[in-house]
Specification:
- This protein is of the alpha+beta class and about 475 residues long.
- It has eleven helices and 25 strands.
- The strands form seven sheets. Strands 3, 4, 5, 10, 13, 14, 21, 24 and 25 form a nine-stranded mixed beta sheet that branches. Strands 15-18-16-17 form a four-stranded antiparallel beta sheet. The chain has a four-stranded mixed beta sheet with strand order 19-20-22-23.
- The chain is globular, with a radius of gyration of 25 Å.
Length: about 475
């Protein structure tokens, strides 16, 4: 794998560093890892595989920071752009991380934030197959793009469908930098509608419904596989198109609360500013609990800790900004699959209660993940893990300006919901202040995204500037 990706990553990073230096930028360049941490560009060139799948990880780390700031322990992050829909989980305030992953069927033994991706985005093409409607995974891309871009595209996309329904402001798209061609979108959607005997509006809603169902299934896939009930989490929507579909997804999944953070189109980039330098180390360590040599395990962990802290020298991390965390991979005897069990500061292998505490923690994780556990059954230690962290600091949270009046500035547009044209508020997000409150239907537009609020939902702007969207009856209750 590295022989394919390594040269490309190294060349790109070298060229990027040269351009930054020529522009007078003297600070170090850091690169996001698939584990959720960052590395200097020099270290990333030496370990290019660590950058695989790291793009969407910034959104997961942003959700983790939002969890810490808001006190919401469980979040489902949905990042929808032009070509893909990425789902991530925050469980008990931390991103869901696996010790291994697969790429194109090839195993990768490295820490990876779990991201489930499906081909559903604003540019996903709607088409007919065997008498049924399909949306994606084929995408119109940026060029020619959706028909409404006016760049020669003729196939209907999710963006075209939303424009036909009035859910996108054609003059305010991409912060007003682009004017969309509504007639071209209607022509493309109407042509597909003829094959199904549907008018243009019905076809547009059908496209959105199929896309939403596909994305909802992606959320079920990643949550159910972790033993998580979606209704127990809040949905965080970001990316250019995520807030446009998020409330519909929450409604289908029974999720009570949808959160649209500030600058949703740049939310993943903000997340990259919230993380730390991270170095991961793993050693095989095969012992049954009955055969465990506690002194040897403690010595091995100390050695791994010293190794991890020493590697932070090359990352420019000061000694007082360093920290480590330990974990152990455990499975039931004669089983194949392991779970990574964190070790706390109180977990000293030499203590009599060490095995009991770790076994109970493993049993709880096994219950949460697989729905059953067998506390007291022999367990097997498989590997030791040490993670070294370097804190580089992060921007302080900023409060959103408080609304000066209860009135929400808006204009009225006609938008289709459930086949009915509805008088809908069109609101500029820059006009919203903390404590502003309004009921749907509403469209909130900004430079990086559009948020769609269907009828029956209410929006409150919190102190951080996030849009908190809940069903009207739940707010009144």
């Amino acid at each position: 794998m590295e022989s394919y990706t390594g040269p490309i990553v190294r060349r790109y990073l070298l060229e990027l560093e040269d351009r930054l230096r020529s522009d007078g930028l003297g600070v170090p360049l850091h690169v996001m890892q698939s584990s959720g941490g960052i590395l200097t560009a020099e270290s990333a060139r030496a370990r290019p595989l660590q950058t695989l799948l790291s793009g969407p990880v910034g959104g997961a780390i942003a959700c983790a920071e939002l969890s810490r700031q808001s006190g919401r322990r469980n979040l489902i992050g949905v990042d929808m752009g032009g070509t893909s829909f990425d789902v991530s989980l925050i469980v008990d305030g931390e991103p869901d991380v696996s010790a291994e992953a697969q790429l194109e069927g090839l195993p990768m033994l490295m820490s990876v934030v779990n991201i489930h991706t499906v081909g559903a985005g604003g540019g996903s093409v709607a088409w007919s197959e065997a008498g049924g409607l399909r949306v994606g995974p084929r995408s119109a891309g940026a060029r020619p793009g959706p028909a409404c871009y006016g760049r020669g595209g003729t196939e209907p996309t999710v963006t075209d469908a939303n424009l036909v329904l009035g859910r996108i402001d054609p003059e305010g798209f991409a912060g007003g930098q682009m004017t969309l061609d509504t007639d071209a979108a209607k022509t493309a959607v109407a042509a597909l509608g003829e094959s199904f005997g549907l008018d243009t509006t019905e076809m547009a809603e059908g496209i959105c419904t199929v896309a939403n169902s596909k994305m909802a299934q992606a959320i079920r896939t990643i949550t159910v596989s972790r033993g998580i009930e979606p209704r127990d989490s809040s949905l965080v929507a970001f990316g250019g198109a995520g807030p446009m579909h998020a409330v519909f997804l929450a409604q289908e999944l029974g999720i009570a609360e949808t959160i649209v953070p500030r600058f949703p189109g740049a939310f993943s980039a903000w997340g990259m500013l919230q993380t730390r330098i991270r170095k991961d180390f793993t050693e095989p360590y095969f012992f049954l609990d009955a055969d465990l040599d506690a002194a040897d395990m403690a010595a091995t962990l100390r050695r791994m800790q010293e190794q991890g802290l020493a590697t932070l020298d090359d990352e420019g991390v000061k000694p007082e900004q360093r920290a480590v965390a330990h974990a152990v991979d455990i499975r039931y005897e004669a089983q194949e699959y392991t779970l990574t069990v964190p070790l706390t500061d109180a977990d000293e292998p030499g203590r009599p209660e060490f095995l009991t505490a770790v076994a109970e923690r493993f049993a709880q994780q096994h219950q949460d993940r697989y729905g059953h556990a067998n506390l007291g059954a022999p367990i097997e230690f498989v590997a030791l893990r040490t993670t070294a962290f370097g804190d580089l600091g992060k921007p302080a949270p900023q409060e959103w300006p408080v609304a000066r009046s209860e009135e929400v500035p808006h204009v009225v547009r006609t938008v289709v919901f459930d086949g009915r044209p509805c008088e809908t508020m069109l609101i500029r997000r820059d006009d919203l202040g903390a404590a502003h409150r309004f009921a749907g239907p509403a469209i909130v537009v900004e430079a990086t995204a559009t948020t769609v609020v269907p009828p029956g939902f209410q929006v409150t702007v919190d102190d951080a500037g996030s849009l908190i969207i809940r069903a009207q009856q739940e707010v009144e209750a």
